[in-house]
Design goal:
17 helices; Rossmann fold; globular; alpha/beta; six-stranded mixed beta sheet; 506 residues
Length: 506
Amino acid sequence: MDVESVAVPEKAPARLVMQAISKSFGGVAALREVDFALRPGEIHGLVGENGAGKSTLMKIIAGVHTQYQGRMTIEGREVHFRSARDALAAGIGMVHQELSIVPDLTVAENVYLGKQPTRGGVVDWPAMFAGAREHLASLGIDVDPRARMGSLAIGMQQLIELARVLFSGARIVILDEPTSALSPPEVHRLFEVLRGVRESGRSIVFISHFLDDILAVSDTVTIFRNGRRIVTEAAAGIDKGWVIERMIGQGHEDLEGSYTGDVTLHSKPAAPVVLALRGLGLRRAFADVSLEVRAGEVLGVYGFMGCGQIELARAMFGKVRPTVGRLEMEGKPLRLRNTADARRAGVAFVPESRRSMLFYGEPIYKNMSISVLDRIGRLWLRPARERDIARRHAESLSIRPSRVETLLQSLSGGNQQKVALAKWLTWPPKVLVLSEPTRGMDVGAKEDVVRIIRGLREQGLGIVVMSTEPETVLSLADRIVVMRKGQIVREFAGEAVSKDRLLEAA
């Protein structure tokens, strides 16, 4: 694979230099001989698909991953952090996508978390409130330091967490998907703060799937693919199409199953609608979502992490209650007060985290039969009947090992996913909602799950596949909608679509 050379003009000596960094997990290479440099007063954007290696590299910098090969220097001094605490002491701070704020504490307490000023052995509250106000104001953040953190909008919480990292003395700040949950005005305000931080001489790494955001705020952009650094380029000289072309590569040899070519979608507009969403909205998660799920059709819902898919899937299964809009099942109003209502109505849901719905310390058959226990034995358990049901599904889904007494925790991720599907197939639903159904699986396991989902479609189920992986929706969907920051922005139906078109739409 050809790797383009770094094309950014030299401005100042690099603050951080990484050379030939390699990292593997369980024998699978996550990073391969990666070089990376970060300069003072620079916002450096990192892009790449899920699993491309960008977050792994940043976690090495932040001391989260401590075992790796290669060399890292900061301000010319070689370092190898043994913990996140070591990295923080060296002036490196990371703001994760899942914020670590304490919602029940005040803004000032969050800014000073773990470092509250004291006088006479007790917290000096006036000094803390005054110090927090001054520090936030220096970043252009106008907020009452006495306000409870949980009462603030997500965008303001993000800014305050950034302020806390800067207040810790960090000279290198890593932001992981900082705009995924923000409205356009909040994104604009964040960018203003970041530009001010850059002017102070600090270095910022900005990781995002949102290419427009990367190009809007970054000075430099580095693209990762398959654990390698593909190219580093000045942001001013590139556009979104240029970035996408290098993210996905030029052929299937670069990215297995990448769907760089067109895939023709075969939507079924004449099929009956089983589940409909009409103007559904949930606070800050998603807004005005209207969808129709048809019998015998796979509807793909594609978008980057944080686009609102996960919350939408939960709303369709009654795990959260929408604040506006309505659902309909086969043309009739559907009110979901909880997941039991959804199950009775014929909606099944396999979440992105299998661990949240399976019992890893129990055998396969108990995980499969739990959804029909009240059908096969209202007054007492019937293990023999449970095993019979499980054996049929283990055979039809090619679960390995097939012995249903085997503990679930001993199965591979792909086989665990098959068990999660089988749990619902013992109670055949009308609609099956799948969130990230092939995440973290090897190629063989993915092919098995794809085959199963296609088989269920042929049985007439309406299936919704939510995924941040374009390959997943392209391999399964008859129709695809694209979500961006809580809204549906594009639908592909009855036409040819490719991976780069999905990326462009998202």
